[in-house]
Known about the structure:
The protein has helices at residues 3-13, 18-24, 28-57, 67-101, 110-132, 157-185, 198-229, 243-277, 284-297, 313-325, 327-343, 350-372, 375-381, 385-415, 421-447, 464-494, 532-535, 574-588, 594-610; strands at residues 524-525, 541-543, 551-555, 562-567, 624-625. By secondary structure, it is mainly alpha-helical. The chain has two domains: 28-571, Cytochrome c oxidase-like, subunit I domain (Cytochrome C Oxidase, Chain A, Up-down Bundle), CATH 1.20.210.10; 572-612. Strands 1-2-5 form a three-stranded antiparallel β-sheet, with no helix packed on it. A two-stranded antiparallel sheet has the order 3-4. Helix 4 packs across helix 8, helix 7 runs antiparallel to helix 8 (243-277) and helix 8 (243-277) packs parallel to helix 11. The longest helix is centred in the N-terminal third of the chain and has 35 residues, at 67-101. It is globular. The mean pLDDT is 94.
Amino acid sequence: MSPDERERLHAVWADRPGLLGFLGTVDHKRIAARYIVTVVGLLFLSGMLAIDMRLQLSQPDMRRMGPQQYNEAFALHGSTMLFLISVPVMEAMALWLVPLMLGARNMAFPRLAAFSYWLYLGGVLMLWLPHALGITPDLGWFEYPPLSGPAYSPGHRADIWAQMITFTEVAALAASVNVVATILKMRPPGMTLARMPFFLWAMLVASLMTIFALPAIMLATSMLIADRLVSTQFFAPAAGGDVLLFQHMFWFFGHPEVYIIFVPAVGFVSSIVETFSRRTLFGHVPMVLSILAIGVLAFGLWVHHMFAVGLPRLGNDFYTAASMAIALPAGLQMFCWIATMWSGRPRFATPLLWVIGFIATFVIGGLSGVMTASAPLDLQLTDTYFVVAHLHYVLIGGALFPLFGAFCYWYPKATGRMMSERWGVVAFILIVGGFNLGFFPMHVLGLEGMPRRIYTYGPDMGWGTLNLVATIGSAIAMLGGIVLTGNALISLWRGKPAGADPWGAPTLEWAARSPPPQHNFEEVPVVTSIAPLWRHGDLPVMTGLATDRREVLVTSVIDAVPQYRHHSVGPSLWPFVAALATSGMFVASIFTPWAVVWGAIPIGVALVLWFWPRRPRSATGPLARR
């Protein structure tokens, strides 16, 4: 590509300057970075709540918090971690990485990506602004009826929680549809499904699971709001409703959500293991089949969260078997990663250390999960701190540890700078060591009978020592998070220049400059191997995309055969305006049902202007491989 064409391409894909450019950008990297920065802020806020609760429980008869304050902290911590951090951060990683790993210039629906972030930010504000005003939801992160119904929860605390779910789940659906379309229709020439990197398979499966799972929780919370606002009786037993209906709908989303979080983490781990073992993933096809199996099985075992509600024993037996069966594909993945490292030449840089920490921690969480999958044992453990320990081992060990490894791995690509390995190791030791010191004693506390969701306990129970140890461990892990964040911030200015591919990785994102330009790639790469950068010293490319307009290549679903060039829409304020109008309708609807009617008008106007057709200039010239 000539210098003039390169300069023209850069100008075409550049954002507008100033506030309008900030609000209207459709650059997938900037949108994903906003997600990640928001999540980092929420992680520290949620971590502070966790430390607050641990200090309250560190000794018997503590009076640092009362029961109402503890319930609010518990609800805010759990809701933030599960709905505002775990799923959104995985979507953010997909938004940032998927186009780069496909050799594409942007997502399939760039404005939809922008809309998803602004609506997600609305969900964050929906939960945290009421907290600042003293009306924090206080019924946990699950809000079971009848306690969340109008008879037992006057005011708007339960409405705030339920509508926060609507915000975040609509945003998640928008992001997931975008990821699926991009992976299926924008792969580079030659990247057949058989040559698709495992990371893309993981993101595809997770996004499809999101599309199928999220409508259930959105419907459940909408029915709850209807019960509270317009006196429907979906969850009122006296009027023919059923409180267990809410639990079924909640957990039909809630258990697949664990794997919606875990499956992208599997993709992170696989990419890191491949790169630092210097060989392709052992058992690539079985690994793909294993995440497809998880994607199916995850929808068939939600009732193991409901073993204590009095369901028929035969049903409990079925869900016990399904809950144990899903451990098989997860176990297969562990053995494939170990075999990859064993048969390769592993280099134990910080990202690979996080993988090792993940494997050790997740195995503990998985084993305790198999234990609680047994209905008779679960009846004894379900409302104890054993389940608290299991939940955190699975979600933090199984999601956040791989996420931290992925952050360290792709940080050079995003910033053009290397993070300090020394401080990376310090952060790893503090976080993994502090986490295990903090949460492993909870298994013992649960076996000794300490209940969940209590704000204090008496000295005669004998739980004080282990709770103090758990509190110290949590504080150490929090310190590790501060070190990791400080390392990232300082490395932005003082880190060594990274170059395009500092790790010697095999996938296409490492062929772009670090940090990537707004158009990612000047020409579309051509793929002939599952590890194209290891196969080719000089990567073949396909020419022919326009340099005077935003244009992307669309290929066939199975074999990635080029089909046509597609005009990619440019920056626009209308996704922001549409998200603002949608947010206004959601907030107002917890006060009056008429908000849905009148709020639809500005949303409709924003969408019409968003999609108002504009005739793109036609491009000339054939596609060609070079």
